Amino acid sequence: MRKSSRTRIGVAVGLMVLAVLGCQPSKSPAVGGTSAYQRVIDSGVIRAAFVNYPPAGIVDPKTKAVSGIFPDSLREMAKNLKLKVEFNEEVSWASLLEGLETGRYDMIGVGVWANAARGKLATLSVPAYYSGIGIWVRPGESRIAPTNDWASLNDPDIRIAAIDGSTPMLIAQTQFPNAKIVSYPDHTSESQLFLDIVGKKADVFFAEPYQGMRFLSSNPGSVKNLAVDKPLRIFADVFIMPKNEPQFKSMIDNSLQELQYSGALDKIIKKYEGDSLLFYRVATPFASQ
């Protein structure tokens, strides 16, 4: 009888322990059970992946050196944190989240447009700035109008150029499902899509003003932006970290906001933006009296 009682007590205690353990918060899915944040702190190095997408991220074709608004900002943030940055892998829009899951790098070190899908699969920082998405067409295009949220784009006769895995591809698929999508491999440069608009292989390309102005500097008068006053969409440009990384996010967020409040971030943006105001700044949560 005593043996039976001890057995029942042992089972009950075991169930209580399992219940308590089951209620503990899940750890980050980082390789080896160690969070990306802890790996960075232990090593003193932030391993950052990058995409060649000027001016958020720029890769020198000869030296492979990485610069741009986000890499320059990340280096300043790392300096304030007494850490180093190593840009260790070039990725594409379609594959950038994969390496976060497998631990090949700790974060995406260039600006990525925040959207619901990325927010579900990864941890996003606060915005560095915002991008308005333009609708780029040939100068003589007359079929497209801004009425009813650009409903005239949702037509089988309209060919929308988009890179696989990109946010413009997602916009085309979800907002304009009746339009014909002309898809490109995920390593295709934006300049190629502009060239195909000019060459009449497609009719429309969704891109931020910087990309269009960059193309026009070499090809004056070849394309125009129909959405200057009313962008098709506005996206926050953010850093991306692995999912379930609240401490890492806190470190990156506060470091980025420190640059913003000191004015250092605006200087970096202007360095690449030039005289034209091509990006929307993040409003400060305070005002001088």
Automatic annotation (TrEMBL):
Annotated protein name in UniProt: Solute-binding protein family 3/N-terminal domain-containing protein
Pfam families: SBP_bac_3
UniProt xrefs under SMART domains: PBPb
Domain called Solute-binding protein family 3/N-terminal: residue spans: 45-276
Range of residues in the leader sequence: 1-22
InterPro entries reported in the protein's UniProt record: Solute-binding_3/MltF_N
Keywords assigned by UniProt, alphabetized: Signal
PROSITE patterns in the cross-refs: PROKAR_LIPOPROTEIN
Organism: Candidatus Berkelbacteria bacterium RIFCSPLOWO2_01_FULL_50_28
